[in-house]
Amino acid sequence: MAQWGDQSSEIEQETILIQDGHYCGRRFQSGQLQAVWFIEEQQVKFYHRDGSVLEVYSVDEIKRSGHREVA
To answer: What's the rounded Cα separation, in Å, for the pair 68 and 71?
Structure first.
């Protein structure tokens, strides 16, 4: 997360996302950043607190790279 200007590495808040009564992902908040893991799309999207998208990763891409700290 430091690459986006946020020095915090601790998850401050985790939210389970439900849409139409079905589990659809999780949202993680740390400092000025958010990460949303979209289950159906198999993506993790990183956002700045202002809502701008910083980066999008596929879950397979994360698994291959070994980034265990992401979602």
So the answer is: 7
